[in-house]
Amino acid sequence: MTHHSSADHVDFSNGTFSGTVVGKVVVTHPPSPRGAVPNALSSLPPSSPGFVGRTAELQTLLRVLKPDAAGHGVVTAAAVTGLGGAGKTALALQAAREAQSLGWFPGGVLFVDLHGHDDAPVAPEKALEALLRALGTAPEYIPPTADERAGLYQSMLAEIAAERGPVLIVADNAAQASQARPLLPALSVHRMLVTSRETLAQLDAHQLHLGVLAPAIAWEVLEKALEIADPRDPRLEAEPDEGENLCRLCGYLPLALQIAAAVLIVNPGKSVAELTSELADTTTRMDYLDDGERGMKAAFDLSYRRLTKQQARLFRMVALAPGADVSHETLTVSHGAALPPRGVDALVRAHLVEPQDTRGHWRMHDLLRAYVVAKVAADDQLKSDHDNARTRLLSRFSALAAEARAHLRSLPVREPRGSFSGREAALEWLDGERTSLVSATTWAIEPSHARASVRLALHLGEYLGLRRFYDDALVVYRHAIEGARSMGDLRSEGRSWNNLGIALRRTRKLDDAVEAFSRALAAYERVDAGQSAGRAWNNLGRTLVELRRFDEAVEAYKQVGRLSESHAHPLTVAIADNGLGRALTKSGRLDEAMDSLVRAREASRRWGNRYLEGTVINNIGRVRRRTGSLAEALADHDRARAIFVDIGEREGTATSHNERALVLAAMGRFATAVEEHGLALQIFREIGEQHRQAVVANDLGLTLQRMGRHGDAEAKHILALEISQRLGDQYHVDRSLSLLAVARAGAAAGSRRTGRRWV
Questions:
Q1: pLDDT tens readout for residues 120-145
Q2: Considering only CA atoms, which of 106, 168, 160 is closest in space to residue 136?
């Protein structure tokens, strides 16, 4: 054996062998066969674009793979990474075939499966051996060591580059960068395409992460699969909603969609609805996502088995934590100790969790969650660990939510060194953990967690109302009612019914709200909870006013006054007097209304409740407008607005603007009234108060009609109509239609007078 420097090349005179220096050792090998272009792709099954749905990603890969005019490029390799079942291999093969058909790789295309997530991954030296064989090296000439094989491999690639042109190497299913790195071609003329479930950050390669498919593309994957099997298959077309649901239950993941399609193909009598019903239960979804040859459980098992014990526990904690995404704080509490350094990073690299835009928040694919749910359900030890994590988390959430609630209610916090520096900090935490908090309350249906979950739900009432998260409130309090019932806790049941009623009223489900408040009162009567009953009577009265059942509303408010001082706080009575005044105003009983409102105003001042004071003064202004005392009414609304601005109450501020506008319009000051209406509408839009937007839009439309601006009025009534229709508020739908008809009639009359055609 001859020794040379590492840069030397040796040419043996007999022409039988050529030589390459590896380190200080010359490795000899036979020349590759002339005229034979290696192509491993021809032996692989054809790919189907219909099963891939990755047009944009394909174009990205082709841009990376394409050599420049000189046959070189900036990037030698591309790594396609993502969750198991994302379609990495299918995309890589499709890109390789297309690149080959374009004539970019006359030197050939090679494919090697590294089996990175199998029990016995292919070692780099074995992968090099397979590639050397594919390049035409006889077994007896393949060197024994990895370094020698790498040297021979690079030498043969250099020879092919000189004689034929670039080669593309496709290395599928790499476990990590170190498994694929020895296969990287040294010459930049060649290209390498690697797929892996791990992010190969250490590989000098362009990184392409495959996420889930867009819903429309997922539908096309299902449709294409069924069409190939039977072009006359009518099931997706006959059940479009169930088809969309099936895509969602498959998590828009290509492999899951292919499995679902195969199940339908094998069972032509099975409806899409039947399959979605089978997949609905997360504890058994993995069992049904199996077509006999492929299964999502088996696909995920490959990733799970590679995790360390510590990583596997973190993975389960992420999956079983409440909410769509999991914060660092939530995961730490669930884990029961400080998170291990880089612990979650390993899960991110493996695409088992994904980092969110907000630092320290992670998200997990729905099918992975279902996989973990099934795994935990089948193991008593894992179930116990999970149950303890929930207990820790509920305890922490409940304590922080109680403290945050005190800040929102402007009540003193018992602990001088609480977790929040003030109201804004409390809101920031609630906003950041909102989905987790809401999801945690659904554990109320579990007997072991019912009490803590119900307690948490009741601490969230002020926050959900403040942020107008009424849909969340509907979920939270329906579960809280169920949990309270399971414990026989009538007080908590009554409070939950009351909070549910508020959310129902705010979403304009007024009849359902009346039922909820009635159920709250029924629960309170059985435990002598008079103070809470007073609040429920007030809420019932307000809802009855919204339903224009004024006489019943008056009786509801009077019930609060009948409660003894030991049962009804004077402030609760003052709130009832304010509501009573509003109901009496709507009934036209203005003198009685004023008496009630004056009592409420004095009580609000006595107890220092500025919000109630502003509300009452606004209502007094309404009475005065109806009695024709316009100047006094305007002054009332000015005072109310000043209070609301001072305490930062935007809904009250907007209401005062609109009430001022109505007074100004009654005074004939239409231009200023329009400005005030506009300010009210803008604030209601900004805070997301849709019902009040509709009310103000109609009021503005009326003012515009009085100005003769019927076309502008029509637009406002249409806005009010659309909002009320969306809310299902029939009374305001009818009112908007009536006002719209008047506006259109006015516009038509104006058009006839001016000789213009009105459309």
A1: 889 999 999 999 998 888 888 999 99
A2: 160
How much of the chain, in percent, has pLDDT values that exceed 70? 89
Most distant CA atoms of the chain, gap in Å: 121
Please report where in the chains the tokens 């009953």 appear, as a residue. 533
Q: Supply φ then ψ for residue 225, to 5 degrees.
A: -60, -45
How far is residue 20 CA from its own chain's centroid?
57
Work out whether the CA dihedral 211, 216, 217, 220 comes out positive or negative.
positive
The per-residue pLDDT for range 215-269, each reduced to its tens digit, is 999 999 999 999 999 999 999 999 999 999 999 999 999 999 999 999 999 999 9
- CA-nearest of 703, 722, 725, 723 to 713 is 703
d(C-alpha 743, C-alpha 724), whole Å:
18
* Chain position carrying tokens 């019912």: 450
CB 382 within 8 A of CB 333: no
Distance CA(197)–CA(243), nearest Å, equals: 28
The pTM of the full predicted model, rounded to 2 decimals, is 0.80
pLDDT digits (tens, 9 = 90+) for 356-398: 866 688 999 999 999 999 999 999 999 999 999 999 999 999 9
Write the single-letter amino acid at 462: E
Query: Which amino acid makes up residue 690?
Result: Q
| C-alpha closest to that of 578 among 524, 623, 547 | 623
How far apart are the C-alpha atoms of 80 and 52, rounded to whole Å? Answer: 14
The angle that helices 254-266 and 215-229 make with each other, rounded to 10 degrees, is: 30
Q: What is the predicted pLDDT for the residue at 21? A: 30
* Contact criterion met (CB below 8 Å) for 275 and 246: yes
Structure tokens at 1: 């054996």
SS3 196: strand
* Cβ neighbours around 563 below 10 Å, total: 18
Share of the chain above pLDDT 90, in %: 72
Q: What is the pLDDT at residue 73?
A: 54
From CA 86, how far away is CA 300, in angstroms rounded?
Answer: 11
Whole-angstrom distance, CA of residue 623 vs CA of residue 633? 8
d(CA 630, CA 110): 88
Provide the CB-side half-sphere exposure for 630 (13 A, CA).
Answer: 10
Please give the Cα distance from 719 to 730 (Å, whole number).
Answer: 15
What pLDDT is stored for residue 752 in this prediction? 56
Tokens, residue 441: 């309350």
What is the per-residue pLDDT across 255-273, written as a single tens digit (0 to 9) for each? 999 999 999 999 999 999 9
Confidence of residue 637 (pLDDT cuts 50, 70, 90): very high
Residue owning tokens 């579990």: 446
The CB density around residue 83, as the number of other CB atoms within 10 Å, is 27
CA–CA separation, 582 and 324 (whole Å): 42
The Cβ of residue 714 has, within 10 Å, a number of other Cβ atoms equal to 21
371 and 284 Cβ atoms separated by less than 8 Å? no
Q: What is the residue-averaged pLDDT of the chain? A: 88
At CA 624, angle to CA 622 and CA 626, rounded to 5?
A: 75
